[in-house]
Amino acid sequence: MRIHLLTNKMLNGTSLQMCLDYWHPFNQHHPNRLEWHIKQLCHYYQVTFEELFSRLSMVRAYDSSIRCKTCGKLYELYNPCDLPDPNYFLDWQCAQCLAFINRGVVDLQGFLASVEPDNEIPF
Ligand SMILES: [Zn+2]
């Protein structure tokens, strides 16, 4: 299974099933796939988009075929109908690793501002 889901324990029953269905669309070839998919789900479960959206906020989806090359963290997904091509993510690094690697002191003033944010206050 390529899509790995992390679900909040508050989700159960119909709400959980709705989210599972959201992340496993069955018609991948429909034009405007995401919009069509959402409308199908809302119709099937008799919920508004707002209700669906509030449930979906309790689910995180990850692509098990794309991992950060540094720490191994899975790539987070936001659109079930448009999965990225893993071949373009062979050297992908997560935001945390990139931030850590690129973290550094640029110059003395930048360093002082970061450790003493209040020293710019004029008196
Ligand atoms: Zn990483």
Description:
The radius of gyration is 21 Å and the shape is elongated. The model has no long low-confidence stretch (mean pLDDT 89). It has helices at residues 13-22, 33-45, 49-56, 95-102, 108-115; strands at 3-7, 59-67, 74-77. By secondary structure, the chain is α+β, with helices and mostly antiparallel strands. It has one domain (3-115). Helices cover 38% and strands 15% of the residues. The longest helix is centred in the N-terminal third of the chain and has 13 residues, at 33-45. The chain has five helices and three strands. Strands 1-2-3 form a three-stranded antiparallel sheet, covered by helices on one side. Bound molecules: zinc ion. Zinc ion (ZN) binds at residues 68, 70-71, 73, 93-94, 96-97. Zinc ion binds at residues 68, 70-71, 73, 93-94, 96-97.
- In what range is the share of β-strand residues? 5-15%
Kindly state the percentage of residues in helix.
Answer: 25-40%
The poorly predicted ranges are: none
What is the number of strand segments? Answer: 3
Sheet/helix structural class: alpha+beta
Query: Can you tell me the number of structural domains?
Result: 1
Question: Radius of gyration, Cα only, in angstroms?
Answer: 21 Å
Main-sheet strand order equals 1-2-3
How far is the N terminus from the C terminus? 62 Å
